[in-house]
Specification:
The protein is mainly beta. The chain is built from two helices and four strands; from the N terminus they run βααβββ. Strands 1-4-3-2 form a four-stranded antiparallel sheet, with no helix packed on it. It binds zinc ion (ZN).
């Protein structure tokens, strides 16, 4: 599968550091977070489902990271990537709206 990753800077001021990168820097230096791991405040996952339904144990999905700009406080999408996600993540939990192809986790 092609590794598709898009990264964005703050659309308001152009800053690339987010609150999460600042707040987690100490933990990274201590080794609590693996080097190179991407940290973000909020993650939204959407499966990509064709009309044929899922095949196998994983389905392709889109993972979008949201965070807050360290300089101006704007909340924006910092990173989007295509992932493989377990099918169990795509099944709506009780009391959640049924999903029609796309489902907010
Ligand atoms: Zn900003």
């Amino acid at each position: 599968m092609e590794n598709l990753v898009r990264e964005f800077v703050c659309p308001n001021c152009g800053e690339s550091e987010t609150i999460s990168t600042i707040m987690c820097r100490e933990e990274k230096e201590k080794g609590h977070i693996p080097e190179g791991a991407f940290v973000s405040m909020e993650k939204v996952v959407s499966p990509i489902m064709g009309s044929g339904g899922p095949v196998g144990l994983t389905v392709p999905g889109i993972l979008v990271h949201y965070d807050v700009c360290n300089r101006c406080g704007t909340r924006y999408c910092v990173r989007a990537e295509k992932i493989k996600m377990p099918i169990s993540m795509t099944i709506p939990k009780q009391n959640q709206e049924p999903f029609g192809g796309f489902h907010r986790q």
